[in-house]
Amino acid sequence: MSSNTVTERILYNYFRSSSSYRVRIALNLKGLPFDYRAVHLNRNGGEQFGAAFQAMNSQALVPVLEEEGALISQSLAILEYLDERYPQAPLLPDDAFARAHVRQLANTIACEMHPLNNLRVLKYLTGTLGLSEQQKKEWVHHWNCLGLQGLEQQVSSSPWRGRFLAGDSPGMADCCLVPQLFNAQRFDVDLTPYPTLLAIAAECEQLDAFAAAHPARQPDAE
Hints:
The chain is an alpha+beta fold. The chain has 2 domains: about 10-90, Glutaredoxin (3-Layer(aba) Sandwich); about 95-210, Glutathione S-transferase Yfyf (Class Pi), Chain A, domain 2 (Up-down Bundle). It is about 50% helix and about 10% strand. It contains 9 helices and 4 strands. The chain has helices at about 20-30, 50-55, 75-85, 95-115, 120-125, 135-155, 170-185, 195-205, 210-215, and strands at about 10-15, 35-40, 65, 70-75. A 4-stranded mixed sheet has the order 2-1-3-4, with helices on one face. The radius of gyration is 17 Å and the shape is globular. The protein starts with 8 loop residues before the first strand and ends in a 9-residue tail after the last helix. Residues about 1-5 have low confidence and may be disordered.
């Protein structure tokens, strides 16, 4: 969701980055326009390693949100910031236990599953460690299936589940789920064992906020 409106909100991101995808969804859900700045993670050895980007984030990771001159990295920190500053279309519920549940789901995806399949990890496997493309694919399948299996069990029995992971409005955990499933599909992970997660993702994908954030609809999509 890019905008021609003059704004001090800039999102430095990459179309296929799962963590960037999360932030785009959240910005769209809250109706917050932003200037889209593409950081290509493969071109010229990776634009994230350039001096200009590393001056914004020394970890050389996308996304980075710039607002009123302040820089925020790490997608979940950005989502928390957006929810605190812009309470419309809240990403976290009011109840403390429900909030903890949503954070638990989001962290399961963003901190336990996604990092093991991140681009820099996969490049290390095939580059430094010399694994084959098939071995890389098996790695991706193993960690995705392990995480999704636990998540499916957790969500299917959750008292908070509604149309979405925690109720009838999309929130922080849903912002994480859809990109993770997209990433799994890219590597041909069989998602049929996870019907609850697929049903919730289908509900999400009917919403304009999710559709507009899809990697295929970004200006740097290849």
